[in-house]
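In response to a reviewer's request, we include the raw inputs and outputs for one of the modeled complexes. The two entities were modeled together in a single run.
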Amino acid sequence: MDLRKVLVANRGEIAVRVIRACRELGISTVAVYSEADRESLHVQMADHALCIGPPAPLESYLNIEAIVDAAKKSAAQAIHPGYGFLSENTSFAKRCEEEDLVFIGPTSNALALVGDKVASRVTMSKAGIPIIPGMKSKGTDPALFAAEAKKIGYPVLIKASAGGGGKGMVVINSPRELKEAVEASMRVAGGAFGDESVYLEKYLPAPRHVEFQVLADTHGNAVHLFERECSIQRRHQKVVEETPSVALDDRLRTKMGATAVEAIKAAGYTNAGTVEFLLDDDGRFYFLEVNARLQVEHPITELTTGVDLVRQQIAVARGEKLSFSQKDVRRSGHAIECRIYAEDPAKGFMPSSGRVAFLREPGGPGVRHDCGIYSGCQVPVHYDPILSKVIVWGEDREAARKRMLSALSETVILGIQTSIGFLQDVIAHAEFIAGNTHTDFIDKYMMPWKEEADKELLQVILTAAAVDAQGKAGQPGRSSSSSVRQVTPWQTGGGWRVGGQ
Amino acid sequence: MARSFGRTFQFTIGDTTHQLSLFSEPGLYRAHFGDRQLEVHVQPISDNCILLDIDGHSVTVYLAEEGGRKFICIGGRQFVLEEVRESAGAGVAAQTQAFKTDYALVSPMPGQVVKIQVSEGDVVEKNQTLAIVEAMKMENELKASARARVKKVCAAAGDLVDAGQIIVELEPEE
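The model returned the following structure tokens for the whole complex.
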């Protein structure tokens, strides 16, 4: 089918990513935005833009009525949901189907199955795919959770059944934390996904998180595009991802890949998706969930396989057959992604919002920066703190790792706190170099953390600050971040030009 | 003719305050750290970038001022500095800060109040959760730092709050 106009129901870097793919395909784009995002980058990049409501996600990016309305008003034929927000919302996909809008993703039936983590646990278990011990039904009654926790033993994990991205996930070590944790999890789940049901499973303290990218068309063809290892996490949210995983040999890779394709077929799933597994050190793997969306970390698969996943998503949504089969899928080299969040790793990764006073993006061969911000933009408090992603490719892991260090060292985001310095320390860590990447990596090796400067660097920093302050003293009412200025304060304040000989 | 006039600066990075004196001379600055002295040539590049030539080493420094704080980034490492000004105001500010920390519950970040779990007159225990503030989908439980009595509840569920804004006023309770 012919697709000429796509509405992108998201914001930030992923909306920008999708808009770019559409442009390359000659498809015109419609951005939607909340009142807090009028000046956001995705709005600037799209061909058309419509405001869909107040800043609160429930009233804008999670507002199905408003988004469907925007699609009709703008005569968009399809909606790309990005990740998060409505990307895995069955009611939204169903509503699109009813309104004759192409939902660029799986069908609402497949979404209902895999998007419901509890239902998919049941399906996978029936198909003989190993799952983590825990509840096979969801609930709201704390007594139900207490009983299951007692049965499988603490620690346990509460998860949002409709969830993703770690939202609503709480680890519980003892029965007395249970009630409050279930309530908190339900509240977060309700706010983030519009569905407050949660469930409980055994908490595995230090597994590896390995996922397989899959692609399935509407003609019964499905392939996997190898794995991504996403073990470096904080608050159950991925921070660093890489492919290939150091933990897989070819035998295990083939087995897990085949299981992923089986899982996707069992669910009748189409379009791009990700099958997540937890892997222990003995090579045992457990089905975790299907992420029925484009993943944040999709670029590392793109860099190693040469497949553009967003374009593939659009092709599948158009009803096209996959243009390649499993044996055609090749990968080369190694790719790593670092997520740049607006947060302060020195203060428990507390979110940081405000104005980005200055941005300098990394560059060079094998470096990709998927970015949702610009110099001067506001980072609102209402949404996920992801600002951008630095993605690198190298011939092997060590080449990619060094390239990542170099790319991060030239990335500058001033005005808010970010995780850039922290990420450099992760990538440079001896245990990361050794490939000892497990989900407890950050707690075990990185915390507590703060940005350290040796004496030399500290003196340079202080000198720069003093020179800047001195300059301002000589130029009352001017600041280094003002964009219009004839003379910089260093030229006048230091006296080294006006002072003369 | 050489002119030289110095100024002493104090900057706080994290919990530590550092001091230096900066002397401007034609064509260069001298930065004094105790008995160590750096000779610095400054080359402005743009509003947010300067090149410092320090004893023959060239360092690219990115910097911006936002919310009264200086953000300085060198080699991908960002440091946030606050200038300590030598005035009576500084002492007052420090006292206000201490007052806030001990006798008021403040939001550590800009965000939205999800829940207030106490009412006026309640006696709360150390580490009791008094309110929940959410920012960027992260819930933060704000806890009492000591046993106290709730004097006034200053925010309600749904309110947007700034970093440092008082959410619950407390008073000592024996």
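As requested, we also summarize the result in words. The CA atoms of residues 126 and 146 of chain B lie 4 Å apart. The helical segments of chain B are 88-103.
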